[in-house]
Amino acid sequence: QVQLVESGGELVQFGGSLRLSCVVSGYALDYYNIGWFRQAPGKEREGVSCIMSDETTYYVDSVKGRFTISRDNAENTVYLQMNNLRPEDTGLYYCAADPDWRLCTSYTVSSGFWGQGTQVTVSS
């Protein structure tokens, strides 16, 4: 059974930084593409960033230049470094693991797994 556990979310001020972690257990991380998603109150969950097993990275336009995704296969962990945070970045952040490449090209989880989420709140 593959499990994902997110951490690192907290309350931060406008312009601040956070680093989120997604630890994967139950299978080797290098088999999976890993995506980060977020859901703000009253809104649908949206894809934010993704890293493929070959380390190709993807970002939505709203976070380009501010967020950086990376992976450490030896530690079974994927990171999301978030800089210059804005109130609109507030939400529950989830990571998902999927061997299907569509996780990264269209933020579609077809045969993968989800974590429980970590809350990020950016105050203005």
Task: Report what the structure shows.
By secondary structure, this protein is mainly β. It has one helix and eleven strands; from the N terminus they run βββββββββαββ. The protein has one helix spanning 102-106, and strands at residues 3-7, 11-13, 18-25, 33-39, 46-51, 57-59, 67-72, 77-82, 91-98, 113-114, 118-123. Strands 2, 4, 5, 6, 9, 10 and 11 form a seven-stranded mixed sheet that branches. Strands 1-3-8-7 form a four-stranded antiparallel sheet, with no helix packed on it. A hairpin with a 6-residue loop joins β4 (33-39) and β5 (46-51). The chain is globular. The relative contact order is 0.31.
Name the features.
mainly beta, 4% helix, 48% strand, 1 helix
Task: Estimate percent helicity.
Answer: under 10%
> Which overall shape is indicated by the principal axes computed on the Cα atoms?
globular
By secondary-structure content and strand pairing, the structural class works out as mainly beta
Distance between the termini: 40 Å
Largest sheet data: 7 strands, mixed
Low-confidence stretches: none
Measured by DSSP, the beta-strand proportion falls in: over 45%
Number of strands: 11
Report Rg. 13 Å
Please write the string of helix (H) and strand (E) elements: EEEEEEEEEHEE
Instruction: Give the mean pLDDT.
Output: 96
Question: TL;DR?
Answer:
This protein is mostly beta strands and 124 residues long. The protein contains one helix and eleven strands; from the N terminus they run E-E-E-E-E-E-E-E-E-H-E-E. Helix content is 4%, strand content 48%.
